[in-house]
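Task 17 of the worksheet. Students: predict the tertiary structure of the chain below and write it out as structure tokens. Keep your answer in the requested format; marks are given for formatting as well as content.
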Amino acid sequence: MSRAQRTALMAVAAVVAVAVALWSLRAPDPGEDVPAWRPPEVRVEKRVALPAAPPRVPVQGASSAAAGTVDRPDGVAAAEEAYEIPAGQALLEGIVRGVDAREEPTFVMGCGSTTVVEDDGSFRMNIGLEPCEVYATRTDGVLRVRGDLEEVTPSDGARLWVSLEVPQYPAAGVGAGVKVDDLGIRI
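Model answer:
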């Protein structure tokens, strides 16, 4: 193929490409039905099982005197039942203020454990014996709203009580965070 033939072939291809582009950009004739673009419909109905609260195990041979009502440090009265706390662990109980009837669950996280908060705001979880911090968190769409940290210092077989709070305001943002460290700025 000679140089002149290649040039002519490229010119014809360019003219055809321009003609196709102009034809596709033409305005529809009056009365012509033009379908509108619609995004594909996607339905996702996947349900994920949430982690359950630690099982409540009555102590063998516990007397009814062991069960009763205990006044908690924050003034909330809760029914105390006899529970077996595994060796080398403590039981962390408490209440989360700010829990409402949203579809998104509220969690208590920290101390190497995570549990779902009950509808009334109460929670119970086994934790290790090292001093640690816990906090309440709830999801708002794909974002998380996190409450303040609360320090706990457990001892073997102890029952600890904390009062946590999760903010009720809706989360806003794009789900990205900016952090400055020794290497620069991280997103």
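Marker's comment: The CA atoms of residues 42 and 141 lie 17 Å apart. The first strand starts at residue 68 and ends at 71.
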